[in-house]
Specification:
- This protein is an alpha/beta fold.
- The protein has helices at about 35-45, 60, 65-70, 85-95, 165-175, 195-200, and strands at about 1-10, 15-20, 25-30, 50-55, 75-80, 110, 115-120, 120-130, 135-140, 145-150, 150, 155, 185, 195.
- The strands form three sheets. The protein has a six-stranded mixed β-sheet, with helices on one face.
- α1 (about 35-45) crosses α3.
- It is globular.
- The chain starts with a strand and ends in a 13-residue tail after the last helix.
Length: about 210
């Protein structure tokens, strides 16, 4: 497995390309902006793109969907609770922030908590972790978690935006804290980190001891 990334757009969002080197298949996670940059990443990797996965549907995570799909007409996978953002609220946010935005029109395949999604021969488990957004999910497998705006190096996603829920965020942080310390976290913004590093230094995760299941 290989995970490539590009930081795109005015919000400096991380878009990821998960590559199954065995089969040459790939999945694009959170294509937020700068479609040409993302298309070049896909082309350079030499993969066949199978899908777009969304951790959530905020403007900075979905802005390049339409442009990418004109070249790669793949399905979009998203938790249904984020439909308000996907259908309307992100376009409103673009107007508020004064940034270009192309409304995605692709139909979405619903993601649900606990299901598996595939990238070639790779398998990732979907966890529904609301708080930053009602339909926020993570994709975890093979020692990594693509965590969107749930957990950053040293911080977490905002909980003061429309449809955010601070209590749900706290429960979602408790859930990601259950992952092994060695799990590499690929966040929606900023550098990659590990669960262990965040448990030791992130004020939002420190003190959350991992439950040992017997």
């Amino acid at each position: 497995m290989k995970i490539l990334s590009r930081t795109v757009g005015p919000f400096q969002e991380n878009s990821y390309l998960i590559v199954d080197e065995t089969t040459g298949r790939g999945v694009l996670v959170d294509p937020g902006d700068d479609a040409d940059t993302l298309l070049e990443m896909i082309a350079s990797a030499g993969v066949t793109l199978d899908a777009i996965w969304l951790t959530h549907a905020h403007i900075d995570h979905i802005g390049a969907i339409e442009a990418v799909r004109r070249v790669h007409p793949v399905p979009v996978h998203m938790h249904p609770a984020d439909r308000p953002y996907y259908d309307e609220l992100s376009a409103r946010a673009a107007i508020m922030y004064g940034v270009p935005f192309e409304q995605p029109t692709a139909p979405c395949t619903d993601l649900t908590d606990g299901t598996e999604v595939a990238c070639g021969s790779l398998r990732f488990t979907v966890a529904h972790v609301p708080g930053h957004a009602p339909g926020h999910v993570t994709f975890t497998g093979h020692g990594v978690s693509v965590a969107g705006d749930l957990l950053f190096a040293g911080s977490i996603g905002r909980t003061d935006l429309p449809l955010c829920d601070p209590r749900a965020m706290d429960a979602s942080l408790a859930r990601i804290a259950e992952l092994d310390d060695a799990t590499v976290v690929y966040p929606g913004h900023g550098p990659a980190t590990t669960i262990g590093a965040e448990r030791q230094s992130n004020p939002f995760l420190s003190g959350r001891a991992r439950t040992v299941k017997r």
